[in-house]
């Protein structure tokens, strides 16, 4: 009897950190369902790269800012699991989809706050709740946080506050889902040079230089610094890591 291939769901997997997470997970012999909000072509390209590795992959549209769309998304995932894998369950939920904005605390609007709340906390809280019945025992939930929950970076008051909530939420997931054999951890990247937040670091050499100088290793992060750690958490090598915040930041502001 063949062993059932494990399956990961990676939100926000079309580009940047999410893309590297999805492809790094595939390199561990795990199939991937990834989501995109607007970049469908990039998502399909990621699917092709995963298939070239030798794993199955599917891309689905998901807008985390539209809270009312989550139920329909769960139905889509159930159908895809049945159609492509002949199963009702999957193994790893990676809550990566996010949005960025650098806004001073005094200029934060209620609208912006609500957007961040939906995308970075409320949406993740309830999407995870909806998927728990479909997670296999031995499965893992991996939530993506930020180095800015440990050190304050002006302009990130809303973003970091929501990520702080995610870190607390993850501890409760580990505590309450342990009886189901499901673990939960946080990966907290430091500054990464991607397209995130309008490529804030990549397009600003001065900022990149300052952030690089804050790291003992003298550089900012790259996407493949993060994806490999997320992929590791999806393997049996990490089976006894649970309820932890793993910062992957090159030791910035240590």
Cα Rg:
17 Å
Q: Please report the first level of CATH classification, the CATH class.
A: Alpha Beta
- Give a quick account of the main beta sheet: strands, pairing sense, barrel closure: 7 strands, parallel
- Tell me the strand percentage band: 15-25%
Q: Explain this structure to me?
A:
- This protein is an alpha/beta fold.
- It has a single domain (7-247), classed as NAD(P)-binding Rossmann-like Domain (Rossmann fold).
- Helix content is 43%, strand content 17%.
- The protein has eight helices and seven strands.
- It has helices spanning 16-26, 40-53, 70-85, 110-131, 157-177, 196-199, 205-213, 223-233; strands at residues 7-10, 31-36, 57-61, 90-95, 135-144, 183-189, 245-248.
- The protein has a seven-stranded parallel β-sheet with strand order 3-2-1-4-5-6-7, with helices on both faces.
- Helix 1 (16-26) links the parallel strand 1 and strand 2.
- The termini are far apart.
Which terms summarize this structure?
254 residues, alpha/beta, Rossmann fold, 7-stranded parallel sheet, 8 helices
Task: Provide a quick synopsis of the model.
43% of the residues lie in helices and 17% in strands. It is an alpha/beta fold and 254 residues long. Helix 1 packs parallel to helix 2 and helix 1 (16-26) packs across helix 8.
